[in-house]
Amino acid sequence: MRLWDSRTRWSLLEPARGHLSWTVLDRLVAGARRAGLPVLLSFGGTPGWASPGGPRTPYGDGSRTSPPDRPADWTDFVHAVAARYRGRIQAYELWSLAPSPHYWTGGAEELARMARGAAAVLRRDDPAATVVCPSMAGLREPSAQEFLLRFAAAGGYQDCDAAGVKLTQRSPAGPPEDFVRLQEIIERTFHRAGVHPPLWNTGTAYEIAETAPLSEREAVDHAVRFYLVGLYLRYRRSYFYDWGGTRLPVVLQTEGGPPTAAGRAVGALQGWLRGARIGSCGSGRADGLPAHVWQCRFLLPPDASGRPVPAVIRWADRGSAPVPTGAGARAVRRLDGRTGPAGRTVTVTGEPLMITYRPGRA
Among residues 357, 295, 360, 359, which one has the least CA distance to residue 321? Predict the structure, then answer.
């Protein structure tokens, strides 16, 4: 569970120097612990008292997009959080949405110094926690790529366990397969920087809140494919933005309400893959599939025979196509809970489906 836009920004946790307000974060961390969910706390939003002359963020809490005037204010805050939640917060994102002008207007070098300082505190105060370097947004743009290069050159990635990025579609309502082209740019940029950290997708772009909701059918498809494309690209973590919101292209669950159809579909995917191991992923003719068809192969937990069950999840980024199921195909599972026998072919659409096979096949 990623905590961001959850009233847990720095400006709200420390409304005055040395005065910490833990009520909200205590409640969220306790809830995550009861649910068995690991917590990623995302830092951001410099308090107004720490940088009174800095530009304001879009939030109404007086937070700033600039670094604090006194570096010790930052490291003191990180220490206070790490000391209180040692062993209860499993990962920390050292800033969110750089270099978006809505969230960070300092330099890449300043952010690298803050990241190194925070990482040193976390290593000392909670050495088991995962340190995620500040998430970079807008990486289709050369200016954002240059910011990442400068951040890396300043040693920003040297003390992190993973690097955060914002893996986004070309438009917030676009298909998740847009991630693939962006990932090519991200990989080239990290290669130019000479660093190759594990990548975590920690959210989306600022513009998402300006986009109308998708239809229920599209929302189901996009929600599930968001996670599948993350697996396709070998991301260690993919965090959906957001749970509880309503003014978004894909709504999974409104605050206090039941899951939507899209939320239930994500739950079905989780059920399919509980205990599974991913194998290979591919798409199109290079993987023996029709154009616009994608797939990922998995080994599911053993069946009654004691052997793992091979499975493949397939989907199309547009249209539909008949695809042979292959030798040993046993059943086709649908996101709405239906399961039927596998024929010789299955029509693949934008809604992912799973084909399971007899152990030893596929």
Answer: 295
